[in-house]
Amino acid sequence: MEKILNLISQRVSAAFERAGYDAAYGRVTVSNRPDLCEYQCNGAMPAAKAYHKAPIQIAEDVAAALQDEAAFSQAEAVKPGFLNLRLNPDWLAGYLEQMRTAPRFGVEPDPKAGTVVIDYGGPNVAKPLHIGHLRSAIIGESIKRIQRFFGNTAIGDIHLGDWGLQMGLIIAELRARKPDLPYFDESFKGDYPAEAPFTISDLEEIYPAASAKSKTDEAFAARAHDATYELQNGRRGYRALWEKIMEISTADLRKNYDRLGVSFESWLGESDAQPYIPPMLDRMREMGILVQSEGAKVIEVQEPTDTKEVPPCIIMKSDGATLYATTDLATIWQRAQDFRPAKILYVVDKRQSLHFEQVFRAARKAELVSPETVMRHIGFGTMNGKDGKPFKTRAGGVMRLETLIGEITDFVRAKVVENQLVAADEVEETTAKIAMAALKYGDLSNQPTKDYIFDLDRFAAFEGNTGPYILYTIVRIQSILSRFGAWEDLPIRTPLTAEAKDLMLALTRFAEVTELAYRDDAPNLICAYIYELAGCANKFYHETRILTEADPEKQKGYIALIALTKGVLDTCIDLLGFSAPEKM
Q1: Is 143 a member of any domain?
Q2: From 495's CA, which of 42, 267, 420, 459 has a CA 20 to 30 Å away?
Q3: How far apart are CA 451 and CA 454, in angstroms?
Q4: pTM of the prediction?
Q5: How many Cβ atoms from other residues are within 10 Å of residue 7's Cβ?
Q6: How far apart are CA 265 and CA 263, in angstroms?
Q7: Are residues 375 and 446 in the same domain?
């Protein structure tokens, strides 16, 4: 289905041609003065130079050529040369009726849609999720949903940190505490116990204790490095321990991500990329791109067109150890072979921008992906406290993600109970949905690259630019529709009020906004749109008698309009990763 701006522009362009001017001047935009008109065309201004005429004369010629155009109720030329336009209400209703009955409300799938891998996890196993993982998860999940909406096969990859020194630290600490476990006996040939020798709570205590010890105890640090090396080289007992760590950690991660409404199609980690590293290094050597630099092996990624220095991508340290860049490159090669992706998107802290620039350039040089494959880093800013500094616990530590979710859930629950929004048996489900809307909308409504202040009172407010306000609008519409009865097949009708027309005009922007959000990987554009749409819907509700309207035909038109509004709002919040409760 053609976007409304394109349809309007086509008609104005044709009018430019009929008036004797180039059709290219007929581009239409949404008016920046809605008190004067709904759309405007400023093409007469640049056309004046080409045709050596006053802009107002050209605008008047085009306005005259539009007088019989059915799409417009007004086409007026105003000085110095603007063309002000208002849509014919009947034509607008016809457009919205097409939108109502079209798949995805008329949004066309991307003709170049393909497979998209989205890396938006990155947690380390054996460690609890903390608020540093929040933005990656929330933004990544929304981008994945938007990619799917436009026809892509989107694969969310958690990319677990499961193969580094933290594993050696845990193994070394566990050996110090429980040396008699069979995992540490190299002569043991039997089956290892089915039950892990630790719980997730144990792991969450063991890792920080081991990490702290390694900073002051050189002998322990050496044992942890040795354990890491032996694990990565296949020591049987250590591999068995690693599998237990993975089993318990991933179960806990799934639980916490499920609570956040975030899912992954691929649960691979750094360990899965390890088999790709040796052949990848051989490939780089054969291509002659792996060069020596101060004892290390690097790939030069500086380009002649660069205006600033881009350091070489270090692939192997002088002691033969590989780095994050090595694993990331091996992971890119693995993804290219497993999924043949059209795009690989990384939703990672913006402070990693140089790292990804180096890795992407190295991947191109090593031909690890096809030339057509898009690799993009979608960097995000930090979530800060009211003091403008990275968000911390009251004690000053990094807050666990489940603690943050618990705090916002408790805050919302108190409001739900205090205001008696739902029956007692519906409190928990309703609370969970409002809390997720508050948290996710509060994050996503910001431009991803920007830092933002986490303000619980503001995010959970039922008024203003918040997730609960959007949910309240949806629930209010659902209540009207439920009381009305059968509404599903009612057609859109000509608007009878200014508020109805404003709501209809806002609805027409759905395709444009979602396409921009898709193009720019920017869920914040959808947030801005639904806040505007919800505002129009609430103004329409307050100014219009819907259920008490005496004229049944008028009433059906109102019901059809708010039903379409609810459908668009529901679709948008699904793209953002949350849903509305039945009551509120």
Answers
A1: no
A2: 42
A3: 10
A4: 0.94
A5: 15
A6: 7
A7: no
